[in-house]
Amino acid sequence: MQEIMxxxxxxxxxxxxxxxxxxxxxxxxxxSRFSKVKEITRGEATLLINKEDAVVVDTRTRxxxxxxxxxxxxxxxxxxxxNGSFGELEKHKTQPVIVVCANGMSSRESGEHLVKAGFxxxxxxxxxxxxxxxxxxxxARGK
Length: 143
What we know:
Elements: H1 2-10, H2 12-33, E1 38-40, H3 42-52, E2 55-58, H4 62-67, E3 74-75, H5 78-82, E4 96-100, H6 107-116, E5 121-125, H7 128-134
Parallel strand pairs: 1-5, 2-3, 2-4, 4-5
């Protein structure tokens, strides 16, 4: 214990940074564990799309969406979802909804907005479009 106290007194900035990082990891872990938005793999997403007619919502920019997206996905920006502008998605509240972003990092927040709006089954795609295309899975172009 005395060595820890010596380290903390000798390196206060490093010690504070470590504590902040540790707290951030704990908060992120608890938020994802107790969130109604669940992260799914590409295989699980494929099953939901093919077996349960899941709706895919791509939250990337219109330009990125045109370069390549999952077939039949809807392009809604995070600000659209935050503002409640669901458009065509509104009629799919009881179906599974898979939220996709570029790399799987920002889709959870968009998914939380959908849950708050009454969507029953919301998922995020692990690793986003980057993971999907990394496994050479099909992407539609244009639209």
